[in-house]
Amino acid sequence: MPTPSVARLTAWSYLRRYRGPIGGGMAMLFLTNLLFVGIPVSTAGAIRAIQGPDPAAHVWPWALAMAVFALATALTRIWSRIWIFNAARAAEYDLRSDLFGHLLTLDAGFYRKNPTGDVMSRLTNDVQTVRAMWGAGILNVFNTGFAFVTVLVMMLRLDPITTAWAIVPFPTIVLVGRVFGKRIYKGSRDVQAQLGKLSSDLQEDLGGIQVIKSYALEPVRRKRFVAASEKLLQANMVLTRVRGQLVPVLGALSSAGSIIVLWVGGQRLSVDGLVEFSQYLARLVWPTLALGWMLSLMQRGQASWSRLEQLFATRPVVADGAGPAIPADELKGRLEIKDLTIEIDGRAILDHVSITMPAGTTTAIVGRTGAGKSTLVDALVRVSDIPKGTIFLDGRDLTTLPLGQVRTAIGYSPQEAFLFSTTIADNIAMGYGSGRAVPRARAEELDRIGARTAAADALDPMPGGVPDPRVVTATEAAGLAKDVARMPDGLATVVGERGITLSGGQRQRVALARALAKLPTVLILDDSLSSVDAETERIILGHLRAVMSARTSILISHRVAAVKDADQIVVLDAGKVAEVGTHAALLAKGGVYAELYQTQLDPDELGALTASQEVVS
């Protein structure tokens, strides 16, 4: 479902497609209130019958009528709730789906500035509050209106003067509701904002639990959490006090109507008329009392909606290219960077960078920490915004290409490997949009209860326990095959949240296999083997040579020795291209690359290198 246009997005726009069920629920609400008036009429009839000459003969029909009206009222009330609440649930589903879809369009910069916990709080708590406004809010708004209309008609039928006196307190109720509503709105926004901050703190602490335990920070983080919880408690107490004052005030004002009825109606109505009138007035007590709760609900819903509007109003910085895609048979992978400058907070991270990467070649990018290597990669995969006319793929400006094609053409294995809480096969198969391997234990459980379906097996990249060849090939190329063979379920082993059951090197190699399984035109390895030892890295890179030779490859590594076989090596220094050349040429030049290389050599290798340079000189 596409994200709705912000211009036409309102809190009630999601209910438009459910007009039918909501209309049916409103009809049931009106019928409920219409049927209810039969109960006071029947009660008054029963009282008159009791006062008559033959009570036993005349009371039971009225009693039967009361029972019928009560049963019919209950049934229509149930159906009204079913239709309206179900519509609100369905609209909640649409809203949450649209919101998540919109969040997926936002670039990495948004998530760097907005804590994950706060975004999650909006996606869960705020959406639920809006749904409550849609369901219970709509029901009570219309129920209150129908109740007042139907009851006032019947009250006016009995005695207009008593009715006029009885409704004197109600204008005051409306004014009180408006005053309290503003306070509830502000309090609700404060509560939701504090809840988002608490969720963010909690998510951060749980994600970094290993660090907390390693440094014995439990008391410190607990104190921080308790302080945040205290702020949330105080915000909730302020809101609770306002809501707690609202209901008694409205209850007192509505009770004043009952006193007026006894005083005025007692002088103008008969006993049966006074009882009937009192039942009508009692019918208005709950809608009146519910008015306070309803106003609170509506204000809280509006406060939550305003927070969701902020998300919907956030537009992605990285815009989708408006030009046509490059035909698949013309996609070769030639990259050209022309005078690329990227500034963050007024500081040039990349300064007039120009690099040409012919199709099918391997380009290594090295440099000291902070040289701008990862920023350059973010620009190539269009995770960050770039100026027009600075990066070209096969001669086409990257900013004019659809983002889908750019990111499909590029296989990216980052240094910080992220794995999903599923199987190894799933994590690898995600590289080409597949995956749903069922672990052996789970498959046996599904078979036992008869819940494993042919459709599930069809989606499984390991149907019948046979791994997808594409997954197997990528696993071997990433040097992961031996590790997988030692695992109890092989490729169907569940890795846990963020791949916690795997070592750092294994996580990096699963992420590398994911990029390889994609069969990309351009392969980018951003220090993606930094968590393995140098010898293992050398072996894996040896396996990757055949893969890299078939496509344009960009190899970033802090280990200079790992990139010496590249067709060209680009040295970044302080955001600028300092040197470009082959390994031998750059060593002979004796510049930044040679310095980096020498700092990473052991004493014996360094002595041999120095001696060879002296001979050359």
CATH topology of the largest domain: Rossmann fold
State which percent range the strand residues make up: 5-15%
Helix content: 55-70%
The shape is: elongated
User: How would you state the average pLDDT, rounded?
Assistant: 80
Based on the structure given, which CATH architecture of the largest domain is correct?
A: 3-Layer(aba) Sandwich
What count of structural domains?
3
CATH class of the largest domain: Alpha Beta
Q: Can you describe this structure?
A:
The chain is α/β, with parallel strands linked by helices and 617 residues long. The chain folds into 3 domains: 192 residues, ABC transporter type 1, transmembrane domain (ABC transporter transmembrane region fold), CATH 1.20.1560; 217 residues, P-loop containing nucleotide triphosphate hydrolases (Rossmann fold), CATH 3.40.50.300; 79 residues, no CATH class. The protein has a 6-stranded mixed β-sheet with strand order 6-7-8-3-9-10, with helices on both faces. The protein has a 4-stranded antiparallel β-sheet with strand order 2-1-4-5, covered by helices on one side. α1 packs antiparallel against α3 and α6 packs antiparallel against α9. The radius of gyration is 35 Å and the shape is elongated. The two termini are 68 Å apart.
Secondary structure elements and pairings:
Layout: H1 19-36, H2 38-51, H3 55-105, H4 108-113, H5 116-158, H6 160-166, H7 170-207, H8 209-214, H9 218-268, H10 271-313, E1 335-344, E2 347-357, E3 362-367, H11 373-380, E4 391-393, E5 396-397, H12 403-409, E6 410-413, H13 424-429, H14 440-448, H15 454-459, H16 469-477, H17 481-485, H18 504-517, E7 522-526, H19 534-549, E8 552-556, E9 568-573, E10 576-581, H20 583-589, H21 592-599, H22 603-616
Parallel strand pairs: 3-8, 3-9, 6-7, 7-8
Antiparallel strand pairs: 1-2, 1-4, 4-5, 9-10
Helix pairs in contact: 1-3, 1-5, 2-3, 2-10, 3-5, 5-6, 5-7, 5-10, 6-9, 7-9, 7-10, 9-10, 16-18, 20-21
